[in-house]
Structure formats: C-alpha cells, structure tokens
Amino acid sequence: MFESLSERLEGAVKRLKGLHKLTEENIGEAMRDVRMALLEADVNISVTKEFIASVKEDALGTKTAQGVDPGQHMIKIVHDKMIELLGGETTGINFAERGPTILLMTGLQGSGKTTTAVKLAKVIAKQGYNPMVVSADVYRPAAMEQLKTFAEQIDIPVFPATPDMKPVDICKQAMASMTKEGANVLIVDTAGRLQIDDDMMDELKEIRETVKPNEILFVADAMTGQDAVNVAKTFNEKIGMTGVVLTKLDGDTRGGAALSIKKVTGVPIKFAGIGEKVDQFETFHPDRLAGRILGMGDVLSLVEKAQENIDQKKAAKQAQKIFSASFDLNDFLEQLQMIKKMGPLDQIMKLIPGAASAMKNANYDPDEMLRTEALINSMTLKERSAPGIINTSRKRRIAAGSGTDIVEINRMLKNFQKMKKMMKTMGRGKGKKSMMNPFAGGGAGLGMEQ
C-alpha cells in the first residue's frame, strides 16, 4: 500500500531528520522533495500546493520547543498535515436513532460496489446490527446473483429482487420486508455505469428520494487515482454523498486518490478495501495511514488484527514458551498459523514501526511460510520436539513428503535455531517485555531472508 509514495517520502524524511536549525532555505529544500513525491503519487496539484504551503507556514510560524530536535519537529508538522489531508478524524456510519438505517452504495461499474456492500454488511453485523442487502442493479448480467452468492457465504439475508423489476420498486419492497427479516440496516447496491450519464443520475436521484438514505456512500477504485477523485466530485455535485469507500487500496502504490479525495470533495473516506476476501475491509483511520506512509508503522491496527484473529490464551502461552528452552517446531508451527490468520506477512510487517524500511533489504518470499508448514507437517512428533535428531536420511524423507529439498530444510532449521537463540537471549534481558508478540525474530523462517 502506497509503496512508491513511502519510498519517495523516505528521502525527504531523512533530510528533515538531519536539520539542526529550521530556516526558510532548508525547509524549502525539504519541501521540494515532498512536493515531487506527492505529484508523482498522482495527488491533485492544487491539493499538493496547499499542503506544501501549509507545512511551510506552520514550520516558519512556530518555535521549536526546548529539547526537541528541529528535524523531528518538522516531521511532526508533515505528519499532522498529512492526517488533516486524509480527513483528520475517523468517521463511521451514521446510524438512524430510530427506525431502520438505509445505506445507498453508488459508483462506477468495476469499482467493487457489490463486494463492498457485502463486506460492509459483515462489519455492521459485528457491531451488533442486523443488516440485509439488496441489489437494485437490473442492468448488469448476474449482478443480483453475485450479491446473493457473496452474502450467503457470511449468512447475511438478501432481498430476492429480479431483473424484471424497477429499481425503485425493488428498494420499496426491500424496505417493507425488513421487519419480516428482522433487519434494521438495509444496504442498497445500485447499478454502476462505465461512465457518468444523465440516465444513471436520474435513477439514483429517484432512489434517493424514495428511500431517503442515512448514508450515500461512493465506492471508488483507489488505483484509478485522479479519475476516481474527479468522478467522486461529479457524483457529489449531482447526487450528494456522505462518505467514500476506497477499494483496492492494497494494490495502490501511489496514493493519489486517498490523499486528494477528501480535500476535493469535502466528503470523508469512511472505509477501505484492502483485498478480495470478505474480511479484508477496514475502517479508514487517517492518523494510522499517515503513520504508514511516513514509515512510522501502525501499531494500533496491528494490535486490533491480533485481537480479532488470535486466541489470547494461546498467544500468552506461546509468548512464555518463546523465551524458554522448551520452544520447539510444534510451537513454531503454531506461531506461523497464528500469523497467517492476521493476513499476508508483508502487510503485517509494514504495520511494525521501522519494519517497512528493513523489509526492503529482505528477500521476501510469500510462499515460504507455506513450504515451512509443509516441512514441519512432514516431520514425526519426535523430530518436531527434538530437531537435533534430523539427520540426512530423515531430511530426505521429509523433503519427499513435503515436495521440497534438503537445502530448504537446512535453511528452515537454521532460521529456527537462530530465532530460538535470539529469543532466549532476549528472555534474559529487557527485550522480553517488548517482544511478547508473534513476530519475534524479525521474520526469520517466515519467508524473509535477512
């Protein structure tokens, strides 16, 4: 996510860290790097100019507190302004105080509206509400069937609309059936188009007047950059919207849409799609994303992922074993499986402060975790608990059973021993407290060769 932008900004941040005194000249030089990074990231040019001017004004207009490094003071200003650019505050769904809540999903075809409707339903269900989804898209072939298939996978009720019905009638009947279904939130997936046209807008206006939605959410493909921003601006002017959902954010290396859309439309980004799976969807946090972009990590998101996906009792037990002599390959396998539940390792590592830059020097192989699991699963229980007995003959058998080779077995065992030794050393010192997590060992044996 935003790798290109982060790499470009890394140079600017290093320059800022080296400042011992803030002057108009050196601030200007550092901001030139930031300006180029933002423009290359496809950030709106007016937004970029305003951002740079605002940072310069604050940097020159405030005194650095005594004992605070001028460079760090400058980085804080850039960080705070970036949070502001991304929207400032985290904003969720505005649920109705009384009666049902109606959410209208809008956007162009191909933006991921249908999958987003289901992902959002899952998030809402986790908050204790009872959502129902309905497709008012009578134009796209199989649109209704697609929504039904996705929703049924996570046990979300779907209103049985048919393509021969009128979109407005579909919405009316879906609202009428909410009580029967025990639903208090209705998510309406409207039809998208390949481009904005008058017919599309007229239909949306008619649906809006009929259902009187609590939220009109515009779903935008983050990878389309300024095109997404311009379409969102037009939608807002013609229909009005209360929030934006950015999809495919995990594949967006630049970040132009995320950094421009709030400033251009005045509408906050509320959610972000970070993958194709139903659970790869999260509330948009401007402060956390700003930290990620500037290489500061995102510890809060890391903690939340751990709490959602990892059994806390098992994690505590694992943490104790990591620092003891009894930590073996059975424990290592369990640790790998815990991490897998949290998502792709490269994404997880980027949430750890400082890990993003360290990963650039690591040869990350996303399939190595799978191979490591296969290797351990091909071992006997005795071999897992006492890896020292694994001789050449045993290695040949394990390699045949796991579809790997002896070189990979040796590398995995070497990484395991290296991690075990490191953890044992840390367990005797201050590191124990700070490393009570499933990421001990800096990625050794998890698909990252240092």
UniProtKB/TrEMBL annotation:
It holds the Pfam family SRP54_N. GO terms for cellular component: signal recognition particle, endoplasmic reticulum targeting. This is signal-recognition-particle GTPase. It is an enzyme of class 3 (hydrolase). GO terms for molecular function: 7S RNA binding; GTP binding; GTPase activity. SUPFAM superfamilies: P-loop containing nucleoside triphosphate hydrolases, Signal peptide-binding domain. Belongs to the GTP-binding SRP family. SRP54 subfamily. It comes from hydrothermal vent metagenome. NCBIfam families: ffh. HAMAP family: SRP54. Residues 268-281 form the SRP54-type proteins GTP-binding domain. Residues 426-450 are annotated as: Disordered. Its EC number is 3.6.5.4. PROSITE patterns: SRP54. Residues 440-450 have a biased composition (Gly residues). SMART domains: AAA (SM00382), SRP54 (SM00962), SRP54_N (SM00963). One of its GO terms (biological process) is SRP-dependent cotranslational protein targeting to membrane. Keywords: GTP-binding, Hydrolase, Nucleotide-binding, Ribonucleoprotein, RNA-binding, Signal recognition particle.
